[in-house]
Design brief:
The chain has about 600 residues and is an alpha+beta fold. About 60% of the residues lie in helices and about 10% in strands. A hairpin with a 5-residue loop joins strand 8 and strand 9 (about 240-245). Helix 1 runs antiparallel to helix 3, helix 9 runs antiparallel to helix 10 (about 340-370) and helix 16 (about 485-505) crosses helix 19 (about 550-565). The chain starts with 6 loop residues before the first helix and ends with a helix. Bound molecules: flavin-adenine dinucleotide.
Length: about 600
């Protein structure tokens, strides 16, 4: 169950396919240099490899026992978290005004991938804290920011994100947790939240809950939701910890994977109501929560990438060692990597992982651009790009996490199905990421109903045009190592273009048909985009080969993706355009 952070690979994709290098050249990041980017990634990779990765199995085996109202984290986790926070990793992309380093989200994304490869159960806590920091920095009052941001940024306290209730999962508007005005500017919360990640633990002295609740006179649905900050322990005026708030963990869930991450049922108001502070305006909580959720969605996408990377590394090592059968032309028994079908699995794992990584990093670069560019029109376009790509980054990458981890089990054969090798843990851990932070079905609906219509469809069309530019560049180099990459990618992009036009034409007239095609459409967009990004990486590697670098691996991955995976685009287009009717008729088949 070893993991070695692929720092060179990550840095390459960040700079080329995701455009960080170009952004640095343009001056988007001030005096940030590529050398600093390399140094940060190398240091994070070292910490992930040496300190966190060995704790992954410990977390899986030990879980997070719940005793007398407290959650006990797995052995070694508290020390690892302390050292991780002390090294400044929690505040990497946080505002410098609050003690953060103000580094790019793109660089933070690279690190988040590595924390997740090392241990998804470990990483999910801090990424929710980071999301809370974003929301508080964007929408909190000066007072709240002064009291909570420095400790959240340093990692001294952790945060949680609390939407879900038994009757309110995907349908957040159905939530019932109640907030009452007290008259002194504070509120009292009563109610129950379920499935709360890191709702209770012993890693930090205080936990800052970001809770959605409804005021008594609030309109129904999502327009009547407000966001509150509810500390586990109240904070005195001098910043020291006061008494316990009226908030407790009632129980924890027993689940398929991420056993090191406590999933808590939280109860508010046993004694009249938990003291709560409003973030932003009353009834505008969803607005604030979206700041938090977009950040968390990308981070969960990176969880998929992280697990996929680790599963790939492990499967590769096993395939080189395990000997079975005789490959054509071999004289004795062969390592299973010599068999074409095993190589097909390994190449699929590698290509999907790299494509998902590139999409996530490109999303992070777009977020940076939207926040940092001097020009208003550039900021708006980048904002639209980030909005378009966020559901794709979340859903595609988490699907890839599951598919790649499943292939990892397959490469191990029976040894993958038993727990000994760790391949099974990756598969179990990966499964949740397609469910939380908005299920992948909800991401696809978001993409089709909210993101495609952005700027009257101009945002997605501009993206498709950009993908076409990559094809032109691939065709122009005409490198035999890229095989049929240009032709297969061109076909995939035209499939995407036609499916996009079809959906945009159906959204108003036959929304049901558009919704039926949402999930295959998201996969189609990711397939075209991922293929183009791998081709961008290959082109950059070919250009760099003049300086002695070897482009073979990148060209092979891009070619494999185009010739073996991008060709699925025509089937996906057909599913989008022709699949809706049979889904409308599904009742008979499901009877
Ligand atoms: C381990 C774990 C950790 C979690 N951590 C947190 C956390 O920290 N904070 C928090 O607030 N929540 C958390 N959650 C909750 C998680 O976000 C929800 O489980 C998720 O949003 C789905 O809601 P649900 O489980 O009620 O499923 P449902 O909403 O009941 O969905 C069931 C199925 O129906 C589909 N579906 C639902 N509505 C629609 C629709 N309108 N159109 C099409 N399809 C639809 C879904 O895609 C899904 O496939 C966690 C859950 C788990 C299991």
């Amino acid at each position: 169950m070893t993991y070695r952070a692929p720092v060179a690979d990550i840095a390459f994709t960040l700079k080329h396919a995701a455009g960080l290098g170009r952004a640095i050249e343009e001056g988007l990041y001030g005096d940030l240099t590529e050398e600093l980017v390399d140094a940060v990634i190398a240091e994070a990779g070292k910490f992930a490899t040496e300190v966190i990765a060995p704790l992954n199995l410990v977390g899986d085996k030990h879980g997070t026992p719940f005793r007398d109202g407290s959650v006990i984290m797995p052995p070694g986790w508290k020390e690892a978290y302390r050292d991780w926070a002390a090294a400044g990793w929690n505040g990497l992309a946080a505002p410098a005004d609050w003690g953060g380093q103000g580094l790019p989200h793109a660089l933070s994304a690279a690190c988040i991938e590595m924390w997740n490869s090392a241990s998804a159960a470990f990483a999910i806590g801090p990424v929710l804290t980071m999301a809370g920091i974003e929301a508080l920095a964007a929408h909190g009052s000066d007072d709240l920011q002064r009291t909570y941001l420095p400790k959240l940024v340093s990692g001294e306290w952790m945060g949680t994100m609390q939407l879900t209730e038994p009757q309110a999962g995907s349908d957040v508007g159905a939530l019932r947790a109640r907030a009452e005005r007290v008259g002194d500017g504070t509120y009292r919360i009563t109610g129950q939240k379920i499935f709360i990640t890191y709702g209770e633990h012993d890693l930090t002295d205080n936990i800052v809950h970001f809770v959605l609740a409804r005021l008594p006179d609030a309109p129904s649905g999502t327009k009547g939701i407000s966001l509150f900050l509810v500390p586990k322990f109240l904070v005195n005026a001098d910043g020291t910890l006061g008494g316990a708030n009226d908030a407790r963990c009632h129980s924890i869930e027993h689940k398929l994977g991420i056993h090191g991450s406590p999933t808590c049922t939280m109860v508010y108001g046993d004694h009249g109501g938990a003291v709560a502070y409003l973030i932003g305006e009353e009834n505008r909580g969803m607005n604030c929560m979206f700041t938090m959720m977009n950040n968390a969605r990308l981070a969960v996408g990176l969880q998929g990438v992280g697990i996929a990377e680790r599963a790939t590394q492990q499967a590769l090592a096993y395939a080189r060692e395990r000997r079975q059968g005789r490959a054509p032309g071999a004289s004795g028994s062969s390592p299973i990597i010599a068999h074409a079908d095993v190589r097909r699995m390994l190449m699929t794992m590698r290509a999907l992982t790299r494509a998902a990584r590139a999409i996530c990093f490109a999303t992070a670069t777009a977020i940076d651009r939207a926040q940092r560019h001097d020009d208003k029109a550039e900021r708006r376009d980048a904002h639209d790009r980030a909005s378009l790509l966020t559901p794709v980054a979340k859903a595609f990458s988490t699907d890839v996490g599951i598919e790649v981890a499943s292939l990892g089990v397959q490469v191990h054969g029976g040894m993958g199905y038993v727990e000994e090798t760790g391949a099974a843990q990756h598969f179990r851990d990966a499964r949740i990421a397609a469910i939380y932070e908005g299920t992948n079905g909800i991401q696809a609906i978001d993409l089709v109903t909210r993101k495609l219509p952005l700027a009257d469809g101009a945002a997605v069309r501009a993206y498709v045009d950009e993908l076409r530019e990559t094809v032109v560049a691939v065709a122009a180099v005409n490198d035999p190592a890229l095989g049929h990459t240009a032709a297969r990618l061109a076909e995939a992009i035209e499939c995407l273009d036609r499916a996009t036009a079809w959906l945009l034409g159906r959204l108003d007239k036959t929304p049901d048909a558009a919704l039926a095609g949402a999930t295959p459409y998201l996969r189609l967009l990711a397939t075209a985009a991922g293929g183009a990004m791998l081709a961008e990486d290959a082109l950059a590697a070919i250009r760099a080969s003049g300086q002695g670098a070897d482009p073979t691996g990148r060209a092979a991955a891009a070619r494999f993706f185009a010739e073996n995976l991008a060709v699925q685009a025509s089937g996906l287009e057909r599913t989008v355009v022709e699949g809706a009717d049979s889904i409308a008729e599904a009742e008979a088949a499901l009877a």
